[in-house]
TrEMBL record:
The keyword Transit peptide does not apply. It is found in: Cell membrane. InterPro entries: LSM_dom_sf, MS_channel_C, MscS-like_channel, MscS_beta-dom_sf, MscS_channel_2nd, MscS_channel_C_sf, MscS_channel_TM-2. Belongs to the MscS (TC 1.A.23) family. GO terms for cellular component: plasma membrane. It is a multi-pass membrane protein. This is Mechanosensitive ion channel protein. It comes from the Bacteria. Pfam families: MS_channel_2nd, MS_channel_3rd. It comes from Pedobacter ginsenosidimutans. Residues 678-760 form the Mechanosensitive ion channel MscS C-terminal domain.
Length: 782
């Protein structure tokens, strides 16, 4: 029996192990089939091999074009503009190649993952535990054969696809490496040029040239490179270009609306003195937006900047025509012409003797023209006196450009040449931009007292009459940036500043950068500003409606508080994420706030919570007519801690939200701003009461400012001492008109009674005098 029990135990254990192996094998087979199915589906979504090869070929072609004048046909010396344009093109090509490389890497990784999972599942030890029974063994071997038969083609397909991807990836990696090496080489050239800004590039202008290339070839490849950089940059910044067009449209709507107001009120002057911004609203809008918002384009190609400046110059010329004197209009035209010539020359990417002579002649002409303009002494005709300083600076730069060109400092000469004329054009544009902003604000402040949705309910009384000083500072800073971009050393001077702001710093366990802190403050400031603008515009909409005595549809009302909280919350989270502040630090701050609330901030928290209750329950809304503890007026705003009520006396009462909820709040607007009014009067005893009622009803029916449903009521109250008293009840359509209606009705009823000989008697008393007589006589009265 013991032997039988031992054999039975061994047999049971073997059967258990066999069942366990069968379950494991079934699970593995299912996983293998699942992986094979996923691999089949993934292989169907093939990579765009043809597109990748075509783009790779285009990258190689564009790289050959970009390298002209830098890696091929180098000439005697490199030029700053050619290096810059080539660097921008190669950067774009490198980004495109890296995008393709990332996609191929992911594809290769997924293919390898499928192969690895199939190989790992195929080598699980549980698959090699064969059944002891011959029949079961035969069935299991057939099952393995079927699975192996199914795996083989998929594995082959995965290997083939992986090999194809690897071949393509090798080509892409080679191109990426080549582009990166080229960028490093260009960086070395640019560094040398920046450190040797005043060094000699060529021989003196009268010496023979060391390298010759036909000028038409230089123009051709310069055009190709310019269009290539413009195309790449426009493609990558299409969103910013769209924003620019939207800003132009919005500015045009503002200026056109303002001009229509002046036209309707016959306030436009014939010479547009002080109103020049309104002369051509579209041209003014384009000029303002392009001048102010061109800085949203980070490191744009020169050809794009030239297009923006030329459009601005055309708009300013249209505005100037017929406004400034003919002499200064000709001067402006000459400056724009010189700028066009200099900009066109700056688009030429490789040096040539023809170009050097052109720069020399154009610079000499610019010096002579500038001196003539300065010596004419017609500054009194100038609208902006600072223009003379920019012309003088131009003369100085062009003089240096002439000498630098003569003595072989080609890159320095070309930089000074374009900088001189660019300085004048940019200075004039920016000066008139500030003037137009001041004019626009002053004109809007003078005439725009009632807000209009065309101007987005903007209150110019709050905005002010003059452009802020910060705008002047920013424009001067922008002028320096636009001038500095033309110098090779600018980027290398700007890099240390950028590194200073982006460098990580550590205080304790917290790591931060100045960029992160600035970004945090900027996002929070924008959030606060946006929330205030939303609240201010919404409340002003109701105030404007009250001024016009029009019942407008309510806006966001008390929901504004929730909108402000939402905006601030989103801004706070974005600022924290942008600055990289750890959440555990936020927990510490919240804990400290909890302690502060427990000790001394109960009142503040009560007011904040009351503000939330008002926002959700809406017992009062912005623009409602309310009465709180005898303070009647209009609800002007509902803030986080307190609310503002504009009283009928003209004062603004600031009331904490907690007090507002705890007070006996009367909200007239909840019932439609109507109010019941009563008039008490008395008529003589001998009057015809029905006639009196009919006359009063006729007077009430003629009044359009009272509700007809519920209609007015005339009730006789009592027999008075000298009159029969009656009361008139009526509903004023708007509470603001209630007392004016009652006054007008009293006048109208009095006139109607007088016309119908109905008297309203004044109180009368009879006085009886009693004289007591002597004893035995009758008393006398009178």
């Amino acid at each position: 029996m013991q032997e039988f029990g031992r054999r039975a135990a061994i047999k049971s254990k073997g059967e258990f192990e066999a069942d366990k192996a069968t379950l494991a094998q079934t699970k593995i087979f299912d996983e293998i089939r699942t992986v094979m199915q996923k691999a089949k589906m993934y292989l169907k979504t093939s990579v765009d091999t043809v597109g990748t090869k075509a783009e790779l070929e285009q990258i190689k072609k564009d790289f050959m074009l970009a390298g002209d004048g830098v890696f091929t046909n180098k000439g005697t010396a490199q030029t700053f503009r050619n290096l810059t344009a080539t660097s921008k093109i190669i950067n774009e090509l490198l980004n495109k190649a890296k995008v393709r490389k990332t996609g191929l890497d992911l594809r290769q990784q997924e293919l390898n993952n499928f192969r690895y999972r199939l190989d790992s599942l195929s080598s699980v030890p549980a698959l090699f535990k064969f059944p002891t029974d011959s029949l079961e063994l035969m069935g299991y071997l057939k099952k393995i054969s079927v699975v192996a038969y199914e795996i083989a083609p998929i594995d082959t397909a995965l290997k083939q696809a992986s090999g194809n991807i690897q071949t393509l990836l090798n080509q892409v990696n080679l191109e990426v490496s080549s582009l990166q090496v080229s960028l490093d080489e260009i960086d070395i050239y640019q560094r040398k040029m920046a450190y040797n800004a005043f060094g000699r590039d060529f021989g003196n202008i009268w010496e023979p040239a060391g390298f010759y290339r036909p000028f038409d070839e230089i123009l051709n490849f310069s055009k190709i490179k310019g269009l290539l950089t413009l195309g790449f940059y426009s493609e990558n910044n299409s969103g910013k270009l769209l924003i620019l067009f939207l800003l132009i449209a919005i500015s045009f709507i503002y200026l056109r609306s303002l001009k229509r107001i002046y036209t309707s009120r016959e306030l436009l002057k014939a010479d547009f003195e002080g109103q020049l911004v309104l002369r051509y609203p579209l041209a003014s809008a384009i000029l303002l937006v392009l001048s102010l918002f061109q800085f949203i384009f980070i490191s744009p190609p020169f050809i794009l900047s030239v297009l923006l400046w030329l459009i601005s110059c055309i708009c300013l010329t249209i505005i100037f025509k017929g406004y400034i004197s003919k002499y200064w209009l000709r001067v402006w035209g000459i400056m724009v012409l010189f700028f066009i010539l200099a900009a066109a020359d700056n688009l030429i990417l490789q040096a040539s003797r023809t170009e050097r002579w052109f720069i020399l002649i154009a610079a000499v002409i610019g010096v002579v023209s500038g001196l003539i303009i300065l010596l004419q002494k017609k500054q009194q005709e100038l609208r902006e006196k600072w223009i003379m300083y920019s012309i003088g600076f131009m003369v100085l730069l062009e003089v240096f450009a002439v000498f630098a060109n003569i003595f072989g400092r080609y890159n320095l000469s070309k930089t000074l040449f374009i900088g001189g004329y660019l300085n004048v054009v940019i200075a004039i544009l920016f000066l008139w931009v500030v003037r137009f902003i001041n004019e626009g604000l002053l004109l809007a402040f003078d005439v725009y007292t009632v807000q209009d949705k065309k101007l987005f309910y903007l209150n110019f009384e709050r905005v002010g009459k003059k452009a802020p000083l910060l705008l002047y500072v920013l424009l001067v800073f922008g002028w320096l940036i636009l001038m500095g971009r033309n110098f090779p050393a600018f980027e290398y001077l700007a890099k240390p500043l950028g590194n200073f702001f982006s460098q990580d710093r550590t205080i304790g366990n917290y790591t931060f950068s100045i960029n992160g802190l600035v970004l945090f403050v900027a996002i929070m400031a924008i959030s606060v500003l946006v929330s205030k603008i939303v609240s201010f515009f919404a409340s002003d909409e109701h105030l404007a409606a009250d001024k016009d005595s029009k019942q407008k549809k309510r806006g966001l009302g008390s929901w504004i508080l929730l909108v402000r909280i939402f905006i601030l919350s989103i801004g706070l989270f974005l600022a924290i994420a942008a600055a990289g502040i750890p959440m555990d630090r936020i927990t510490i701050v919240l804990g400290a706030l909890g302690v502060g609330i427990g000790f001394g901030l109960q009142t503040l928290v009560n007011n904040l919570v009351s503000g939330l209750i008002i926002a959700f329950e809406k017992p009062v809304n912005v623009g409602d007519i309310v009465d709180v503890d005898g303070q009647g007026g209009t609800m002007k705003s509902i803030g986080f801690r307190s609310s503002v009520i504009s009283t009928w006396d003209g004062a603004d009462v600031v009331m904490p939200n907690g007090d507002l909820l705890n007070s006996h709040l009367v909200n007239w607007s909840l019932a439609g701003n109507r109010k019941r009014v009563a008039i008490v009067l008395g008529i003589a005893y001998n009057s015809d009461l029905e006639k009196c009622r009919r006359i009063i009803v006729e007077v009430l029916d003629a009044e359009q400012r009272i509700n007809k449903n519920p209609g007015p009521v005339v009730q006789y109250e009592q027999f008075g001492a000298s009159t029969i008293d009656l009361k008139i009840y009526f509903w004023a359509k708007h509470i603001r008109e209630a007392y004016a209606i009652r006054s007008d009705l009293i006048v109208a009823i009095s006139e109607a009674f007088n016309a119908n000989n109905i008297s309203i008697p004044f109180p009368r008393q009879d006085v009886h005098l009693f004289y007591p007589n002597k004893e035995g006589e009758e008393p006398q009265t009178e």
